[in-house]
Amino acid sequence: VALIEENGSPSLKDGKIQVLPGQTINFTYNDLSNAFGASVQKNILVTVAKTYIAPGGLTSGKTVWNAAGSPYWVGGNITINSNDTLEIQNGTRVMFRANKSQEWGQYGDTINVIGTLVANGLTGDSVYLGPNTSTPNPREWYGIRVSQYGNISLKYTKLVNAYYAVSFDYNYAYDTIVNRISHSLVKSAKTGVDYRNSQSPSIWLSIDSCKFESAPNDTGSVQLINAWYDWNTYGDSLVIKDNELIVHNGTVPNSSFTGIQMYGRKYGPGFKQAYILRNRISADTLVMSSYSRIGIGLDNFQASFVQNNRIVNFNEGIRAQDDSGSVISGNIFSGNKRHIQVNYGTAPRIDHNAFSNPPIGGSALWNNGSYDVDARNNYWGGPAT
After folding, report:
1. Is the per-residue pLDDT at 151 higher than 90?
2. What local confidence, expressed as pLDDT, does residue 184 receive?
3. SS3 67
4. 277 closest CA partner among 244, 250, 308, 314
5. Angstrom distance (rounded) from CA 257 to CA 190
6. Residue 63 has pLDDT above 50, yes or no
7. pTM (predicted TM-score)
């Protein structure tokens, strides 16, 4: 099959299809001769790109991708170098090759951000980043990777079917760096946001008013938001607020998943407060399992406020362990096997929460640690509203 140019004219029986950029072709293969062991029909929908982006570094200075040049097809790993900017404007679709390498350390099919990435859509006219197929599987491309002194601003952006939709990897970055992800959709990723900070004291990250949703047919482990700190990283600012996080666990009975996981923010001398506020975190249904299924995990994570969240249908609504001295207040728990589980040397302050009656064999608060826990002034039992 050959495609004619955008402004060409089709002619009868010339073996060419007329198609415009942004249109979709449905390819169908009928295996009627049973060549592969079964009579099957395969369909794949492919969107035709208008602009091809070759692998490598982008033009120095500022590069703009807009709706007029959309869809863009990225042919491999691209890099926004230090002091350079890529701006992706509203209504722009950016597509990546599907079924490429997904292992950590291999960054094909990635926007590697060492400079600045700005992808700000509008309400009803968002920016789209995803694989070049209309029927993608989970984890088809790698995602956006931010490192060194890179920074991003994403607003009204859709990130679909990536491995790590957005990953941050800061090592010894001493400049003040501000990152914000807001009003965006992150869907069918292994990890929606993966934030790793090693001895970089002035990083600011805000995630607000977004929707994170796992793939219904994903059988691997899932973390919708993950933050990991080196032992002596301090001084940064982290805010996760007003988001909706949904885990589709009905079809993945033998997997582990976490809504928000925080690790390692313990030994720094001058942490700014971390805030996890007003998020709704839910799984489809409670599935009793030995696998780790946690709404919010706090592991060696101090100086944080976990307030006014709604957490539904996890084996553990909140797990706090290893000296996680946090404030857990004003949250609503329902449908969890254990609403809060405290492990090891941890003594969080737990107050003004609403705990619905847990299922048989469950508990509202399970103290598996060595310290007394102050859990006064909470609502215990009955329907939590």
Report:
1. yes
2. 98
3. helix
4. 308
5. 10
6. yes
7. 0.85
